[in-house]
Amino acid sequence: MNKEQSIILLEKIVRGDEHALRQLFDMFSHKLFHLAYSYLQSREVAEEVVLDVFTAIWNKRNSLAHVKNIESYLYISAKNQALQYIRRKPIPDENLLSLYEIELISEDSTPEHILLGKEYELIIQEAIDTLPPKCKEVFRLHLSDNLKNREIAKLLSISEKTVSDHLTLAYKRISSYVKKRYR
C-alpha cells in the first residue's frame, strides 16, 4: 500500500467507514501478529494484542486525522500494546509457533525433493533460532514483514546503521550455520 492509499484509507476510517477499517485489518493484521508474537511468544495473546490495536484505532478514529504514516502508527501501537500486556499479565505457556518458517517451492515435487526441502527449512529455522534476540527481531521485521531498514530503525528506536549491522550478522550466521550442517 502506498502512502496516498493509506492516507485515503485512514480518512475513511476517521469518517466512520467500517469497511475501510476491515481493509486495514486485512492488510496489516498478519504482520502485527508477528510483531506481537515476537514479544509475547504466545499465539493467543498476540492475536488479542492485534485485536486490541484495531479496537483502539476504531475507538480513537476521530483523533487520528494527524497520523501521516498509518503503517508506522500500527507497528508502534502493536509494540506498545504487547509491552503493556507483558507488564500487566503473565504470559501463558504454550507451544511456540515458528515465525520464520520459510516455504521452499520445489519445481520437482518428488518425495525425495519434498523431504530435502523440509530438512533445509528446519536447518534454516535452527539457524534463525540461534540469532541474538535483537538481531532475530530485526531479521524477522525485514524478512517476514518486508520493512525497510529506515522503518525498522524507527520502530525499534535504533539507528539505520544498527539495523544494517543486525541484518549483516543474521545473514552471515545463517549462511555459516547452513554450510556447517551440509558439509
Molecular structure report:
With 183 residues, the protein is mostly helical. 72% of the residues lie in helices and 0% in strands. The chain has helices at residues 3-14, 18-40, 43-59, 70-88, 111-129, 133-143, 149-156, 160-181. Helix 1 (3-14) crosses helix 2 (18-40) and helix 6 (133-143) crosses helix 8. It is elongated and about 55 Å long. Residues 91-107 have low confidence and may be disordered.
What brief labels describe this structure?
about 180 residues, about 70% helix, single chain, mainly alpha
pLDDT < 50 stretches: 91-107
Classify the secondary structure makeup into a structural class.
mainly alpha
Global geometry: elongated
Distance between the termini: 43 Å
Which value, in Å, is the CA radius of gyration? 19 Å
Portion in strands: under 5%
Number of helices: 8
- Helix content estimate: over 70%
Note the run of SSEs as H and E. Answer: HHHHHHHH
Tally of extended strands?
Answer: 0
Q: Quick one: biggest sheet?
A: none
State mean pLDDT (0 to 100 scale).
Answer: 81
